[in-house]
Records
---
Amino acid sequence: MSKNVLVPIDGSPLSFQALRHALREFPDASVTVLHVVDLFEPGYGAYPDFETSYEPLMGSEDWYERAEEVSQQLFEEAEELANDYDREVNTVSEIGDPKRLIVDFADEEDIDHIVMGAHGRAKEKRPVYGSITEIVARRAPVPVTIVR
């Protein structure tokens, strides 16, 4: 049985469904919620206005503060969800390339299972699996459960 489960979230409904799945299916595991602000698509997921509202500020202190606000908001939602299962989650925020950072985090932090949503795009724009999910599933050093 898995001891350390990683759940990347982007604010999309499927990322929270993945968290629900991890909390339900791995009751004895430590669950870490990872939010990666994508430098190239910061509005990917539940906060599509992030990119357009803050693009001129990208790289500025204001941009990083906004990225932290978005991460904190996601973590609060994740913690509320964990409370529904009488559980706690660890939270980590990173800025960079999600597909690389998710795999690196799993490798460096003794993660033994990743649970993630199939994609973060809206229904009309989505393929069966998103590019980040597909790459993580192929490159991860541990099993990956994809929630649809």
---
Amino acid sequence: MTRCFTMLKPGVVNRRLVGEVISRLEKKGFKLVGLKMLHPSKEIAEAHYAEHKGKPFYDGLVEYVTSGPVVAMVWQADNCVELIRKFCGATKPEEAMPGTIRGDYCIHTARNIIHASDSDASAEREIKLWFKDEEIYDWNDAEAGWY
């Protein structure tokens, strides 16, 4: 089992799609082990997107993520990062296939609705940035093995 950090960005909250996106991830079989809603500070957003600092989209991305509340989550499954990335779809909406989260709900890259860790190392770093150890709940999943 591995873990993946995901974040539903302010546009998802404003469009009232939080439950829809979480439901799709749960129905796929991902195990939700961490969940919280918060209005991120500029500091946490900058730390989260540190690898993009200096790129043309960086300032706008930080501004968007801090413009309202986000829903931070930790999911767990076999090959979790790889599977969630495929489930989310391509970052660019014009490349995201219908049936993926971005393919179904996103039109503009600058207003991308979901972030998902891009590697196991990124997932570990992002989870530690957004969650304390005691905020992660690895509960007994009676459905394990059915997906």
---
Amino acid sequence: MPLAEKTEMTETMTNDFLGQHETGVLSLAESDEPYAIPISYGFDSSEQTFFMRLVSTPESEKRQYLASSPRARLVVYEESDSGATYESVVAVGSLEEIQPEELTVDHIEQYGDAKRPLFEIWGNSKQDLNIRLYKLDPEKLSGRRTEIDRDET
């Protein structure tokens, strides 16, 4: 059986990892009901803050969850092609909506880094879409790296 070596990522390793990625899974909770969605993000490593542009339709679950000011957990992960290395970062906190009149130049730069992934395809007309800007300033940010030594038995 291969042995796995797990290590906690340093702040520098975590920042580098998050800066090299642009998508993750955002989980929201309301009462006992979880909701998880793939999202894209921008990351400010100096402030360790995530920036997201979230799009929803009038009848969407996403809009209902966001309206409740839910607790949030963002997971960003990667597995190497060989499966020998796995890295993940988890951010926990509350989402804060940024109103357009509160936008700063720094905000705009960070939202520009939040790419629009291919899975964000909408069948609704543009006027039916609710596009809101959010930031996640995590209370807890942790990363883990696992390496599997396949040569050990």
